[in-house]
Amino acid sequence: MSGLTDALNLGKTSLATHQTLLDVTGNNIANVNTDGYSRQSVDLGTVPALNFRGFQIGRGVTANNIQRAEDTFLNRQILDKNSGLGEQSAQTTPLAEMETIFNLGNDNLTAKIDQFFDGWEQLSVTPDGSVERDTVLQYGTLLADSFHSMSQDLADLSSQVDEALTSKLAEINQKLAQVADYNQRITTLESTGINANADRDGRDALLEELSFSLGTQSYENNDGNVSVQLPTGLPLISGNRAFSLEATATATGSELQLNLGTTTRPVDANGLGGEFKGLLNLRDQFIPQVQDNLDRLAYTLSTEVNTLHAGGTGLDGSTGQDFFSLSISGGADPWSGAAAGIEVALTASNQVAAGQSSAVGDNTNALLMTELKNAKTMDGAHSFGTFYAKIASDIGLESAQNQLSVTGLEDTMLQLENLRDSKVGVSLEEEMINLIQYQRGFEASAKLLTTVDEMMDTVLSLKR
């Protein structure tokens, strides 16, 4: 009976193994549309053979473990490209808003500059006209208001970018803590010899999200733990311990720090990737650069106009008066804050210096003001209008390049993800073939058990 008992055990292990194969196949089919799910398969092994009367008799099959499909090289490429996509994507909306602020429509700053100098041209025709003088003052006020509005819009945009950064910190820190928890669970489970497939899928999904946000780099250790760090090497996760990113409010915006428990380390755009790098570069470099150019334009325009105006004489006989006043912020450059601080200094239209004397009909100064409109006063290469157009053009170019980069990276990511899906994702066609194959194996195993049972009944009947 021992031979029949061995055959019965062989059928039993075969039946159980094929049941496992069917279970895993069913799980694959159920998760065919689950994001981040990696196809699973059963690692089959032969049960050690039995030596019997000079022969080795096979003892069937067993399921050693359930494995998860993985392509480390592709995952690395996806994380790398994902970081770049995060950096560029984060800048798309702010750059589009900057394009709106510096639009080249009919009511932009260039139009206000042209309007202001056209007012002086009208005054040169009728230098004693009160209406023309009032018009010059009104156009000067509209020009100053336009500078104020654009400067405030840039400040608001910078604040929005800063808020976008700080609002993501809680979510980022939560994800870091979740990865550390996954590390603990994976090492605990796999130390018993069981593959933590579901936990690894969950951890990989979080690592992909972190690369998009921070440009993180991750490395798996021999014990199954994943170490996560910033591009500069600052650690974010070590084993089952996660460090946190914090923000400290300053006058110019929030400063990021990495809390390492016993100490903190400052983190800037150079130490980051992904969305945070893109947003920090906008807040700390591109927006201030645009603001600086706008301030330079306001400062140069006001000083050039003031120089000419101070050399002229108003109808009231006043001389040496500035047309514009400037409230400077006291930054490193003399023009810092000029766009926000420019105002019309004159309080009455008869103070407008159309001539260089108080003589009736003197339009000398008004003519000089008119010529200032097209003079290359900005860097010796641009007029006020063309310098503004260059600022707007640079923003448009930056936005266009950003959109091209986003499109290119999205296409690359799609190709990489499709390639990964073809290697580690679920194919319904393959799973259906496996399902039929494993079903046949299950049926054959059941048939074997039935046959052995009948044989045992036959043997037992011989003893009756």
UniProtKB/TrEMBL annotation:
Q: Does Secreted show up as a keyword for this record?
A: yes
Q: Name one GO molecular function term.
A: structural molecule activity
What is one term from the GO cellular component aspect held by the record?
bacterial-type flagellum hook
Q: Which Pfam families match?
A: Flg_bb_rod, Flg_bbr_C, FlgK_D1
List, in alphabetical order, the GO biological process terms annotated in this UniProt record: bacterial-type flagellum assembly
The keyword Lipid metabolism is assigned to this record: no
Q: Which UniProt keywords apply?
A: Bacterial flagellum, Cell projection, Cilium, Flagellum, Secreted
Q: Where is this chain's protein located in or outside the cell?
A: Bacterial flagellum; Secreted
Domain named Flagellar hook-associated protein FlgK helical: residues: 95-324
Q: Where is the Flagellar basal body rod protein N-terminal domain?
A: 14-37
Flagellar basal-body/hook protein C-terminal domain spans which residues? 424-462
User: What family does the entry list?
Assistant: Belongs to the flagella basal body rod proteins family.
Q: Which NCBIfam families match?
A: flgK_ends
Q: What is this protein called?
A: Flagellar hook-associated protein 1
